[in-house]
Amino acid sequence: MRCGGACPRFPNRSLATATALLCLLLAGGCGEDRPRAYPAKGRVIFADGTPVKLGTVELLSQNHGTTASGKIGEDGSFVLGTYTPDDGACDGPHKAIISQLMIFDGMVRHTTDHGSPVDPLYGSYNSSPLKVDIRRVAQNTLELKVEKAKKEPRQQGAGQAGKQ
């Protein structure tokens, strides 16, 4: 017997079919078709050898279009991750940037030394001269040398006590 319109045995056939197709499409985008990441760690230092104590390193793969990033520790060290926080970066050449968020509003007295700010030139892929090559090896060890900001931001309120 043929149902004309809605079939009482399968009232949501079109919904079930659409859901199954959507699952297949989404599953087709998953898997191991993505480029492999190779372990990468390193340090960010200023030209004088002192560590950059705060910020994030980010690499943009020139071959794959993927990004890898890692938080900079107080000793300047970082570990890169692309798909997970510490799996590394894809092989090949990369552009690199250093981003920092430092608030100099004079409102908060910091007890931690966040170090010197990095020159803003290193914060954009368009201006950063940093380049890195990730190899297909067990561990890539990187050293990124940067310049300090030309002028540290003036802290508002500093030295203003008693002035009105």
Describe, in plain words, how this protein is organized in 3D:
This protein has one helix at about 15-30; strands at about 35-40, 40-45, 55-60, 65-70, 75-80, 90, 90-100, 130-135, 140-145. The strands form 3 sheets. The chain has a 4-stranded antiparallel sheet with strand order 4-3-7-8, with no helix packed on it. Strands 5-2-9 form a 3-stranded mixed sheet, with no helix packed on it. The protein is mostly beta strands and about 160 residues long. The radius of gyration is 25 Å and the shape is globular. The chain has 1 helix and 9 strands; from the N terminus they run H-E-E-E-E-E-E-E-E-E. It has a domain at about 35-145: Carboxypeptidase-like, regulatory domain (Immunoglobulin-like, Sandwich).
Structural class: mainly beta
Q: Unreliable stretches, pLDDT < 50, 5 or more residues?
A: 156-164
CATH topology of the domain at 37-146: Immunoglobulin-like
Strand order of the largest sheet: 4-3-7-8
Give the overall silhouette: globular
Rg over alpha carbons: 25 Å
Q: How many E-type strands?
A: 9
What share of residues is helical?
A: under 10%
CATH architecture descriptor text of the domain at 37-146: Sandwich
Taking the alpha carbons of the first and last residues, their distance comes to 92 Å
Corresponding CATH superfamily of the domain at 37-146: Carboxypeptidase-like, regulatory domain
Q: Tell me about the biggest sheet?
A: 4 strands, antiparallel
Text of the CATH class of the domain at 37-146: Mainly Beta
